[in-house]
Amino acid sequence: MERTAPEGRGPAPFGPPASVPGLPVLPELAERLAGAAHGAGPEPVGGGRDVLEAACGYWSRRGLPTDTSHAAAAPGGEPLLLALLAATGGDVLVPRPCAAWYAPQARLLGRYAYHVPTPAECGGVPDPFALLETVRRVRREGGDPRALLLSVADDPSGTVAPPELMHEVCEAALDESLLIISDETFRDTVHDAGGTVLFSPAEMYSRDVVVIVDLGEALVPPGWPAAIARFPGTRRGGELHAATLDALAGLRAVCAGPVAAAVAHALGEPGPVTARLAAANRLHAVLAGALHRTATAAGVLVRPPQAGSHLYADLDPLRPALTDRGITDSVELEDHLTRRIGAPVPGGHRFGDGPDTLRVRLSTGPLLGGSDEQRLQALTAPDPLELPHVDEALRLFASACAELDGAPR
């Protein structure tokens, strides 16, 4: 459903936010991809044996034993979710806010994605009472909610839901006979792996949870589309698996052979891959912390980041000063900050919030630098905040925040 910005500004942009460059490709993965580039045969629908066995090993190391007959691979999270929702049928419930790629998949199928209020402290997991109220209201109005899509480590907020909340919302969903789809794309990007407790719903309710992981946020470069799914080892799980593969076949959504070879290697988590992931997590933790300190110093409301490379900032406390500058909604705020900073700063309307809010997603990406050399320097520096290009980008962000607060330029 298209939404319109206030005061006749025309359609608000609801597509996926523009991306920023990631870290340089790990040489070992580039070698695997290049080594398989001579192969002309397509991968099977749902993934070849090498990828599926590697995916099962990946989940087993996380306490989720899986058989290859209940696993699938696809060229990216979007086609995988689209195929899964096609197999599930009915409508889907999602948090508000949520990742920008959730709702469009439901709309492509002619289904509704109903947003459930999600307090800032809850990460990507909606309030259980709000979930029950939303499900029952939707059913009274003739809707057909069948699945709850949530994220254990959240985009856009970069926070992790408390385990007790995860337990409560899963119980509420199962009481309403909903399938739980757990997006675990960012589970391996937790900044403080020793202090942040992260649970998968599949650890609690393995018979009722499908797990999906877009691998481009942790184990492989984001430009190499790859995602995996884990289905329950039950009759219903087998039926969902088969129906999902049928939908993937209809989309011709199969992994490219060279990418599949690199993905299978990365899912095995050899030393260089895990070392790169650990270094990336340390880097994003430092940069996200710097963004958090700068934003809060300017009066912006933003939760401390716990995972990934994003923060979700609420600039409503600055609304009077923003109004004086002609900024009254998230569409205008996105336009202004993107121009001012010179990098994408997507507004809250892209994540399910109304355009009248003053929310944006902040990313560490613009701080990494504009070249592979600068990004590699940031990755390996003892203190990336001391690098000139990182310091300059942070100063630009601080200046933009100060302007929005009405402070002298």
In short:
It is built from 14 helices and ten strands. The chain has helices spanning 27-35, 49-60, 77-88, 102-108, 128-140, 163-175, 201-204, 235-251, 257-267, 271-297, 319-324, 330-341, 372-380, 388-404; strands at 71-74, 91-96, 113-117, 145-151, 179-183, 209-214, 227-230, 301-302, 310-314, 359-363. Helix 6 links the parallel strand 4 and strand 5.
Task: Tell me what you see in this structure.
The protein is an alpha/beta fold and 409 residues long. The chain folds into 2 domains: 27-269, 3-Layer(aba) Sandwich (Aspartate Aminotransferase, domain 2), CATH 3.40.640.10; 272-404, Alpha-Beta Complex (Aspartate Aminotransferase, domain 1), CATH 3.90.1150. The chain contains 14 helices and 10 strands. It has a 7-stranded mixed β-sheet, with helices on both faces. It has a 3-stranded antiparallel β-sheet with strand order 8-9-10. The longest helix is centred in the last third of the chain and has 27 residues, at 271-297. The model is unreliable at 1-10 (pLDDT under 50).
Topology, element by element:
Layout: H1 27-35, H2 49-60, E1 71-74, H3 77-88, E2 91-96, H4 102-108, E3 113-117, H5 128-140, E4 145-151, H6 163-175, E5 179-183, H7 201-204, E6 209-214, E7 227-230, H8 235-251, H9 257-267, H10 271-297, E8 301-302, E9 310-314, H11 319-324, H12 330-341, E10 359-363, H13 372-380, H14 388-404
Parallel strand pairs: 2-3, 2-4, 4-5, 5-6
Antiparallel strand pairs: 1-7, 6-7, 8-9, 9-10
Helix pairs in contact: 1-9, 2-9, 3-4, 3-8, 5-6, 10-14
